[in-house]
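Hey, I'm writing a tutorial for new members on how sequence and structure tokens pair up, and I'd like a real worked example in the thread rather than a made-up one. If someone can provide the structure for the chain below, I'll link this post from the tutorial.
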Amino acid sequence: MTDSLHRRPPSLTGALVRVGLFWALSVGVLIAAGAAAHGLGAVPAGLFTGAMASLGTLLLSLAFLRQEARLPGAAGLAPDRFTPLRFLLGLVAGLVLLAMHMALVAAYGHVHWMRALTPPSPWQALLTMVGYVALAWREELAFRGYPLRVLAAAGGPWMAQIIMAGLFVVEHRLAGNNWSNAIVGAGLGALVFGAAALSSRGLALPLGLHAAWNIGDWMRGNKGGGYWVASVDPGYAAAVEHFGLMAYALVMVMALLLFEWWRRAKAIAED
């Protein structure tokens, strides 16, 4: 089997059609996994949904690659001996970005983090964290795997990034996020994770970044539960929320520029 990605770039129209079909099917897989998660009882819904949706999206990716006579490596799905290290580096980088964001918000003032009155047990925390990793894995497969690589080959990395970030925003908006959180939160996050995927040429690094951010965000109380609760001074809720988005944008733009520099440096070194 040959990898046609390296022999002849696909046409942009053909790439857009395939990516649109892939995304629609991946959303269907996610909806089906979420519906099946209801009524499981002992198994957390997020963990089951993430695991089943990740498996379905992985199989979908392999089916598209097989139909196009391309190898898994063309979609960043070929692990090597450095894959675990890239994942760990992604986890560390994601926690560093989260710490930077919290430091900026704390410096602004009017918000304080307090220990939760009923923190999760170690078992609950473990299941929740694994669930966030599984959900992040599904999103990396659906947005930074096959579709991002196909579009990057057809129209260049930035066109691919913008299109996939737009779809990421739409999916998060449909999931219930308001427009500001969908565009700034999910949109900028998508660009950073996409840049990490393109610069590292795999999914381990963006998966670590994505999972670390979501787990850290849960731990500080932004997703319900967690170990801390944010207390905002009366009358400052809107101001703290707006500053938090601005701080998030600053941190993510810095990360995006760093990964883009890395990608271009690697491309220049290989020419």
